[in-house]
Design brief:
Elements: H1 3-20, E1 24-31, H2 34-41, H3 43-60, E2 66-71, E3 74-79, H4 84-96, E4 99-101, E5 104-106, E6 110-117, H5 124-140, E7 146-148, H6 151-170, E8 176-185, E9 191-202, E10 206-208, H7 214-219, H8 223-243, E11 249-253, H9 264-273, E12 282-287, H10 295-307, E13 311-317, H11 324-329, E14 334-337, H12 339-343, H13 349-365, E15 368-371, H14 377-385, E16 390-391, E17 400-401, H15 402-415, H16 420-428
The chain binds ligand C2E and calcium ion (CA) (2 copies).
Amino acid sequence: MNRGAFTEALAERLFHARREGGQVALFVIDLDRFKHLNDTLGHHAGDLLLAEVGERLRWAAAPGELMARLGGDEFAVISPVADVGRRAQELVTALSQPHDIYGRQIAPGASVGVAVFPQDAADASDLQRYADMALYRVKTGGGRRWSAFDAELRAESERRRTLEAELRRAIPAGEIEPWFQPVVDAADGRIVGVEVLARWRHPEQGLLAPGAFVPIAEELGLIGRIDEAVFEAACARAAPWVAEGLIEHVSCNVSPRDLLDPAFSRKLIRRLGQTALSATALCVEITETFLLQDLALSRRHIERLAAKGVNIALDDFGTGYSNLRALMHLPIQTVKLDRSLIADVAKDARVSRLVGSMLHAARALGVSIVAEGVEDPAQAIFLRAAGCDRMQGYLFDRPMPADALETRLRAVAAEASPRVAPARRRARA
Ligand code: C2E
Ligand code: CA
Ligand code: CA
């Protein structure tokens, strides 16, 4: 049964349950390590495994149950059972037994989330959403278990609904503002650029960091509008700093979701044209997860931006796939080493060797390196000696509002030797 037929069947079951006063449990199932197995064993083995799982689910069906594959490695069971917990555990156990794939014993493990009509949800779309939330909680906890929708998830669901409504209002209301964190030259500590980081000035909750709203904005498809708003506001503030020679570049973050919009790079270039910032002073930071999505489309965006002179940086390098091929085959000029690597760089000899060889590889490929999250002098000393180009972190500055940064930049410029500063200004004039 496919997703369409499944949605119809669920509506029909709910219709009858409503009329006859019955209950309907919806179990959603996800294989824990499917992506990994598919990548390592190949797509044929992956397809075979999914077929086996589907078959095993059909065998495991209790009277009155309907099984469906919702797509990918996601399955669902619509069930009239009363003892939901016991049934969920049976499903986890049944799907955790190894499968024989080309003579190998493969046990991908399964996670199950469940929600029940009518006590949890009054309609099909809430029922699905709630079962998904329960599944998500299991997955983030490591999988191989089941979880039921409960009071904790209901509170979370309500929080999200409110947040959603507020976020939709916040963007046009101008509550999302750009903050700036300096990026310094590793050799002399001079501020060479800024990274723009979004903050939400929430009317009741105060200032919110991106962790509190970027993931939900991505889920709701609102991230593109946030990134646009941040970009415009940031350019308006930072373009004069670049023009005055206070900084050389401005880095903006874009979500991997943005890269799925076919018009993304054209729109960005058009908006850039409306600002006073030159393309060569702009850096666009993207995380590696785009490599897992629509690579052909992402490549087109990256190439189009690079052709205009925009610098492309690969963000959070060292956390995900750390794809060196991407560095070779895409016009990426900068790599940002993730904070998690920098944290141990001066403490753990293996991490320092790893970072040292990453810096070496990046140099060989001709890309420049920014170390993120530099918090103590020992880290900075190591990175400088290992040939890192630029650094960013609390050791130098925390992210700050535009006014604070402007004050700081002017103070630094005034402090610089008075003989040097006018000479520089003359040279530019
Ligand atoms: P990111 O791009 O990796 O940004 C760096 C994060 O590290 C920032 O967190 C920054 O405040 C923090 N940070 C910088 N130096 C240090 C340090 O020395 N120690 C520690 N512990 N942290 C440091 P922030 O501002 O909370 O942003 C989190 C993430 O949200 C960013 O990670 C970025 O992925 C995303 N983000 C921020 N602004 C935007 C935006 O406008 N659009 C999109 N799509 N994502 C954004
Ligand atoms: Ca970034
Ligand atoms: Ca980063």
